[in-house]
Each structure stands twice: as structure tokens, then as C-alpha cells.
Amino acid sequence: MKPQTTRSIIRKNPEYPEGAVKLIVQIPCYNEEKILAQVIDSVPRHIDGVDQVEILVIDDGSTDRTIEIARRAGAHHVVRHKTNRGLAAAFQTGVDACLKLGADIIVNTDGDNQYPQAEIPRLIQPILDGRADVVVGDRQTHKIAHFPRHKKLLQGIGSWTVRLLSGAGVPDAPSGFRAYSRDAAMRLNVMSGYTYTIETLIQAGMQRTAITSVPIGVNPKTRESRLIKSLWSYLKQSGATIVRTYAMYQPLKVFFYIGVLLGLVGLVGVARFLFYYTAGNGAGHIQSLILSAVFLIVGFQVVLIGLLADLIAANRKLLESTLYRVKNIEIEIELASHKSQGGGQDGEDEAAGNAGDTGDHSSSLPLSLGR
């Protein structure tokens, strides 16, 4: 069987010559004036199978010269949040902007130069080959010298948990060095306000998206992580994200297991009461029987809640499908309009800065950029 070519794999982009593939590398930033230029300079501009490479910087409310440095270093597009809204919001804003700019492949990297941009061609190759829609860079954390032992252990446990829940064989779930095909990017819906890495992997796994990983190295550490302020905070936030995302896609299973567990506790209490009752000592154990009955009733109610949540989940899947179609239509209209106007100008696209805003506004991207 003849292997597929790049042009048959990537959706044709109406803004560029037939079959052209456009890659946009997005860099979420918050006060990265010291290292951002180095990140932008290290992005390869010529990649086999890719016709155009552009760079988009998402300034998440920086108070330093991040935007100025981004322009000087050669970023093609800058999207700005008026206030700091967090990594997850910056990631989603960047993805939305990349899609509206006609990206066929989107690569996400960090502004602290943690990831080697020279690995981008290897990162996107599975997408170009038609083998995957999402590719995650595996940092091989067990080899990273500056990672403490407890962090490596927790990283391994967390990645194992995500693999178990999502069905995606990704050894480094928290890695932010990722590539998305256009189709996979349009299906992304980040709900977490903390980070996108774990949530989007579970989400992609539940959507049966083709996911793979490629081993990469890491650059020397440039600063302390702003996301992990403390170990307890990271565990709490990540754990809550895992539970919430999995329950969103598998509510019946989650609530059924909880309900069965409560029911088993109740059955144990009933069995205990019957044991003493048959031995002639039942009169002193009425309280435990009442408590057991409460566990049985609550367990049954939890299972019913799971059934209701499963019906809501079915409705959510329909809404996701509708949202995907709406995004596709919006982007096609945007690209067609952009093409008819002879293309746009590179520059700064200002996104809404308040978390309560219903949309973001941009001078060159008229459709909403954020959530």
C-alpha cells in the first residue's frame, strides 16, 4: 500500500497554495523578557514537509518587556491578556488564535526555554506521517539531573494514573511540549483554570484521538517553576483536575463505583447485625443496623446520580460535536475573508484580560480568541 503523503494528511488550507502546510509555534509567556528571545531564535524556520513556520506569543498579562522582546525577536503574532489569567487560559487563547490564523499544525512550547525547539521537526513528524493527531514530548524525567527524587516519583505516579484513565500511552503526562493537528486542536476545550496538560490528555483519550509521544531532552533550568508553588498545592490541583475530567467523561463509572463502595459498607454492617442477632445479642446493635441502612440508601442514591450524570454527559457530547462544527465554520469563514482581503498584517492581537469577560477582542482577528 502506497504511504500517504503530507498533502493528503493535512487538510488543505484555503489561504495558501493547494496542499501547503502551515505550522504555528505558540509560546505562552508571563514575564519572560530575559529568555524569550532565545526561545524564539531557536525555533527552526525550515522543516521538511512544512511550507510555512510562524511564531505566536501569548502574553499573559506580563508587567515586563515581554511583548517588546517578542516583536524584536521576530514573533509573527502577539496575543495579549490584559491581566494574568493563568497557563491554561493562555494555552487555550493561543490555540484559538492559531486556528484563526490558518494553522494546520500547532506546537506548544514554554517561554522559559525548558524544551529544545530543535526537536520540533521530530515532534510533528507523527502528524505529518498520519500516525497521530496529538504528540507529546517525553522529557524522560528519570534522566533529568535537576529533578529531585520525590518529583520524579510523583511524576511517574501521575503519568501512570493519566495513562490508566485516558488509555493514552504517554509516559510524561505533564509535559507541555506538544503538537496538535488542526482537527485535534479544534476539539480542545480546556475547563481547568490551573493547567491544561493533564486535562487535555484525558479529554483526547476519551475522544479516541490518536496520541503518541517522542523522547526529547531538556535544556538547562533557567528559573523556578511558577506553576508548582508548593508540592501540596500541585498535588491538590492536579488530583482535582484528574478526578473532575474523568468524571466528566465517565460519570456513570465513577458514581457507580462510589455507590457500590458505600453499599458494601452498608452490607457489612447488616451482616454484622445478623451475626449478633442469630447469636441472641441483636438488641444491642440496632444503631449499627440503622447506620448500615443509611450507607445502603446513600449508595443507591449515588448510583442514581451517576445515571443522571451519564445522561448529561451524553448531552455534553452532542454539544461538543456542535461546538466543533461551529468552530470549523467560523474558521473557514475567517480564512476565506482573510484570503479575499489579500492577507493580514502581523502585529499585536489584544485578548480580553478579565476572567469574567465573555470574549476576547482583536484588531486583526475579529472572531473571539479566548473563553
Query: What would you call the structural class?
Result: alpha/beta
- Domains, number: 2
- Overall mean pLDDT stands at 82
Q: Gyration radius, to the nearest Å?
A: 24 Å
- Would you tell me which CATH topology of the largest domain applies? Spore Coat Polysaccharide Biosynthesis Protein SpsA, Chain A
Binned strand content: 5-15%
Classified by CATH, the class of the largest domain is Alpha Beta
Architecture of the largest domain, according to CATH? Answer: Alpha-Beta Complex
CATH superfamily of the largest domain: Spore Coat Polysaccharide Biosynthesis Protein SpsA, Chain A
Spans of at least 5 consecutive residues with low confidence: 1-8, 352-371
Q: Percentage of helical residues? A: 40-55%
Lateral strand order in the biggest sheet: 7-5-6-4-1-2-3-8
Number of E strands: 8
Task: Give a brief outline of the structure.
This protein is α/β, with parallel strands linked by helices and 371 residues long.
Would you spell out the secondary-structure blueprint of this structure?
Blueprint: H1 6-9, E1 22-29, H2 36-41, E2 52-60, H3 66-73, E3 77-81, H4 87-100, E4 105-108, H5 120-128, E5 134-138, H6 149-166, E6 178-181, H7 182-186, H8 197-206, E7 211-215, H9 231-249, H10 251-278, H11 286-340, E8 347-351
Parallel strand pairs: 1-2, 1-4, 2-3, 3-8, 5-7
Antiparallel strand pairs: 4-6, 5-6
Helix pairs in contact: 6-8, 8-9, 9-10, 10-11
